[in-house]
Amino acid sequence: MDLIENYREELKLVRKPMDRFWVFVLIIVALAFPWFAKEHVIYTATLIFIYGVGILGQNLLIGYTGQLSLGQAGFLAIGAFTFGHLTRLGAPWPLGLLLAGLMAGIFGIIVGIPSLRLKGPYLAIATLGFGIAVYQVFLNSEVLSGGRMGLNIPKLKPFFGLSPHVSNYYFNLVFIIIFSILTFNIISSYLGRTFIAIRDNDIAAEAIGVSLTRYKLLSFGISSFFTGIQGGLYCLFIGFLEPNMFTFAESTTLFVAVIIGGIASVEGSLMGAAFVILVPQLLSNYREMVPVIFGITIIFILIFEPLGLYGRWYKIRLYFRNWPFR
Amino acid sequence: MTLFLQNLIAGLSTGSIYALVALGIALIYRSTRILNFAHGDIATGGTYMAFILLGMGWSFSPAFFIALLFGSLLAMSFYFIILVPAQRRDASPLGQITLTLGFGLILQGLVSYFGGTEPQSFPFPLSDIETYQLGEIYLNQLSVGTFIISIFGCILFYLLIQKTKLGLAMRATSENLQAAQTLGLPTRFILAVSWGMASLLGVVAGLFLAPALLLEPFFMLEPFLKGFSAAILGGLNSLPGAIAGGIILGVSEALAGTYISIAFKNTMAFIIIIIVLLVRPEGLLGKKFVERV
Q1: Domain range for residue A144?
Q2: B196: contact with A, CB 8 A cutoff
Q3: How far is CA A186 from CA A13, A191, B250, in A?
Q4: What interface predicted TM-score (ipTM) does this complex get?
Q5: What class has domain B2-279?
Q6: How close A55 comes to chain B (CA, Å)?
């Protein structure tokens, strides 16, 4: 990693002038992107941004706190349906999104209380069950799911005279930027340090005064909040909800994205989001093979490149930075 | 009373299936400290193998035998090809669980590619329409057969673990891996046998569930989750606990479906997980191995 000389430098989002230049270029490219790309490419990019929000949250839980959750689809469903019903009742979207996130976060804490008091893989099992239970509740209750026709929600109104695709793109771009910065700040604040301490050595963390249950719950709550926001954004983007969007396969997609993108890195979460959105799009003729690709990639990454796509990218960058030398 | 007995028997039959699944999960967790998320998918793979062989005109017993063999070979090859190299590279427990999940995804995809995603009915020697009458209670052939085979399987498994040399080696390996290695046990081989045995039990459960449910690539997901909660209910590191947990779960599910609400039936397993984690995290028969945070 880079040499850091004082605390203020450590807290900076962008540490070097050269990095500042690249971030600037990246933002310009992201802003100018809709003017060059075709419509379905913009659509795909928007989906990546939406998924990125939830995957950032998942990464806080899996990557930084070291807890495994396999029921993210449940929180996604709770967020999306909360948002959908509120919108149909006439709530404006900022309120709807906030409440969608809060609702998912509250449910996250309710599920987390029993399972996070124990060590080991209990959270994975409890969340796995929770995800499927939520799916079945929505499937069996017509009041919640809107029945067989699903739930139709008014989409985002285009703003500044842009086309619907482009305005959706910018809308979600703003969100992914906000949430990336939020995640960076969480990680470099005392909260993120606590999470990392719990992941690396929980006994040592407890010995220096970290309340394990409290911070694990907090991490789980924050990650569910992010997922709830993702549900709300997704709902606003698609304009239609039905329980079958939130099956176990959706949970695994979110989980796979974290592992493939790179554990404990913000950039990795975004790369993972891009991976899980792009692979099914590229393999649209061989839909059954998508899980196979996911599975093989997971196994390869866990055995050969534990830091995921981000780790690979980091190594390539390091190679070019020190180029003539090794 | 008749209704109660009828439900009790239906519950015992499904419960014995859950017990088989739970037994496989507990066996793997006990010996390697890994939760096997591919357990359901391996069972699905074995069942599809039997389905394909039956479709080619094989008779039941060789097809089922090959299916069992195929399931255990899948699990053993996963252990040797993927898990052992990962352990050599110091994979974390979390990473190893993720590996089983990845393996499960691969199997899921392959099953839907080769077997098709359409639900199919599975031919079986026992039918669920033919019934025997016992007093006022009706027993259908399939559930009676399921119950008998499951109990038989559990007894065989018990004898294997408690009375044979291989079972002794398996117990020793799960008790203390280093000590077992020091004493010269071929621990890698024994762990592979544990994986194979666990998956064999899973495939047996799959073969008996397929005629009752319809055969589709995700048909083992729910029984697998139920088996998980049964294993937790009984204590994740206890084999008798897994059997007891499975039967309790099956019976309580059947009774809850009748007396409370049918919609309640499927969420029962999840509620049981939460209650067990709150009240007695080591499970009914488990030793107090769980460290509280």
Answers
A1: 40-247
A2: no
A3: 12, 6, 45
A4: 0.85
A5: mainly alpha
A6: 16
